[in-house]
Amino acid sequence: MRTQVAIIGAGPSGLLLGQLLYKAGIDAVIVERQSPDYVLGRIRAGVLEQVSIDLLDKAGVGQRMHAEGLPHGGIELLFKGARHRIDLEGLTGGKHVMVYGQTEVTRDLMEARSAAGLTTIYQAGDVTLHDFDGAQPKVRYTKDGQTHEIACDFIAGCDGYHGVSRASVPESALRTYEKVYPFGWLGVLADVPPVSHELIYANTGRGFALCSMRSAKRSRYYVQVPMEEKVENWSDAAFWAELRNRLDPEAAERLVTGPSLEKSIAPLRSFVAEPMRFGRLFLAGDAAHIVPPTGAKGLNLAASDVGYLSTAFAEYYGEKSPVGIDTYSDRCLRRVWKAERFSWWFTSLMHRFPETGEFGQKIQEAELDYLVQSKAASTALAENYVGLPLV
Ligand code: FAD
Ligand code: DHB
């Protein structure tokens, strides 16, 4: 088989890139290790920035998002037992975010891809990348006991943190930066109305909590747990009791509980691999960088990477210009590091760190108090939360 761009991974970055390339008249094939149902079963991000909304519109898949997504013009910060609203819209000149789950984004992209008759190879085994330092890269995989080869002009590594693309780059060509946090997020998805119509980020002596949602009838909640915690140790009743304990009295009273549809623990990590291009291989999304989820930046960074990459390929094929592909890594990394900084800062502000004790808690409360009182500090939070502009 031959194509212009071979995309590894059918997560949000691979699928969105595929759709943007299709709109630009560029041929692409996606190779994915898992089945479509497995990919759709992963419950992850929930908040889209304007940049991501615009890219989904450009890809022609924004219809259901605009109909069913929930625009949010504010978030609430809960500390010392009281909630304080950050007016995202007022502080950023009218910008907002959209609450629309990664599962739905992925579903919309999958449906658009199959409606357009584009090729995705699911359940591909032993995916390997070849010759991306030369002019004729290749991707090989096995399916139904046979080995297949895709010859291509470029490879897009959209296969997440544990994928094969970054692992195929010689170690000497890669510099990595990493921070692992000593806790994770225990998340529950449940068909119960959200406790509040806006998201609540809570700093408490018992640890962080987040009240989010997927719709007016479906809630997504998280509580900070120690890194070594096991999900099997958490019954639904234990989860609801812990979440209630981390809310202010009014929210605790309003909290509606119910059976969990999904329950899992996500570890928290900051990670960046530089550069994001090696010859004709380009890394995008979680394959190149991970943020702790506190600022809801992971999916949004994946979207902006593939926004840059699709434009670069369109310039290469359309205007015969290599400028986009030559500047891809630097442009992405400027944005990535700002999101890394914000996610690290918001994580550090909101979580309980075992090593800093009560002093750390007091310092966090003082910073939060300053944050909600100072327009300058609230504006810095709001600008980053709604997403920095593309440069
Ligand atoms: P992925 O979504 O990881 O997709 C990569 C795809 O590549 C997968 O489908 C995988 O099966 C496939 N693949 C892997 N290896 C291979 C291979 N060898 N061959 C072929 N295919 C392969 N972000 C937020 O903003 N908010 C959140 O609340 C949040 N929660 C998260 C919870 C968890 C448990 C995780 C892991 C991430 C979370 N994120 C969150 C981050 C966000 O979901 C990611 O940033 C986003 O999924 C990145 O998309 P991606 O397409 O780059 O990578
Ligand atoms: C969600 C996840 C986040 O990391 C976040 O900051 C906000 C919302 C969510 O899953 O809904």
UniProtKB/TrEMBL annotation:
One of its GO terms (biological process) is benzoate catabolic process. GO terms for molecular function: 4-hydroxybenzoate 3-monooxygenase activity; FAD binding. The keyword Phosphoprotein does not apply. Residues 2-343 form the FAD-binding domain. It comes from Rhodoferax koreensis. Pfam families: FAD_binding_3. This is 4-hydroxybenzoate 3-monooxygenase. The keyword NAD does not apply. PANTHER family: P-HYDROXYBENZOATE HYDROXYLASE (PTHR43004:SF3), TRK SYSTEM POTASSIUM UPTAKE PROTEIN (PTHR43004). SUPFAM superfamilies: FAD-linked reductases, C-terminal domain (SSF54373), FAD/NAD(P)-binding domain (SSF51905). Keywords: FAD, Flavoprotein, Monooxygenase, Oxidoreductase. Gene3D superfamilies: D-Amino Acid Oxidase, subunit A, domain 2, FAD/NAD(P)-binding domain.
